[in-house]
User: Fold this.
Amino acid sequence: MRANYLHINNVDVSNYSDSTGQAENLTRMNRKKAYWISQITGWSIFAIVNIIVSASFDYFSWQRTIELLYLCFCGIVMTHIFRDIVKKNGWLNLQPKKIIPRILIASVILGVVLSFLFYIMSIGVGSLNLEHFKAAFILADIFRLSSTMLLWTLIYFAVHYFENYRRVQIESLIWEAAVKDFELKTLKSQLNPHFMFNALNTIRALIGVDPKSAQTAVTKLSNILRYSLTMERIETVPLGKEMQTVSDYLELEKIRFEERLKYKIDLDPKSLKVEIPPMMIQTLVENGIKHGISKRTEGGEIDIKSLVQDSMLTIKIKNNGHINSEALQKAKGFGISNTKHRLNLLYGEEASFSIINKTENEVLAEIVIPTGGVKNESFNS
Assistant:
């Protein structure tokens, strides 16, 4: 799944994988160090346990100590060779039904070879008793050492299984973050052309009718354009800054609609510094004017309120108009789908968005987001 560079629709998201590349190199070094520490520690424990057992049965001697040290050395060498065989043949990637028989057979073979080397050393130090050549003793030693090798193998495979499981989880989260980041940027890029098109249409309509108002409109538009450009670099902005752009937009639209458009803004002072997704309120206000007020001969009013309570920011946007149930169900053409998607990407289930016909001639859109910031920190830049 992971590669040095991940691309989504030709968008380079290699930063996500590069950040894990260095971590993997460090992890690889730490894993190698941990492997040798575990090898030496494990076989040392094996030798100590055998020494204690031998001493308990008055079977302890300097020859026995040499035999056990030699046995531990052979165990380390053989398991290390076995580890290379496992990695070279890709056993770690096999299904359990294929791994289990290989583990059992390999453990028996390693136990037999280790028993043979043990007997060779016993002959060398002169501690071999002829009674050990009886089948029962030979089978007992093979069983004991095969069990030890089986235990080593099971621990080795278990460690790698959990490491692979954790790595897959991390890669899945990285890939998910990359996809969501790209998706969020795509949603944001869809807002700019739509907004700018409407704003330019407003100015074009004013140039021939009221040049002075057109100049004022250009100033307002420049402020809005400057703000919209920053949206490409940031994921959230203070509510106060967002509302400055909303005010400019409403003033721009008021020039076009004149007395047909009225608006009220009532903001909780505690809400001004709360971070929200940029252009979100502006988009809903724009939709309220386009799909509500502009369709009414007598025009209407936009009412924006904010309130901070219980670590949650609530923003209510009311406008005259009506949303038919079919359009509301499809959630297209009113910025509803886009708003819901952006909130879900940034805050998950902690945020909510709703839009309803409060009365026959009034639509209410409500956004609720946590004041603590976005849920997914990978979107903060």
Residues 7-176 form one domain.
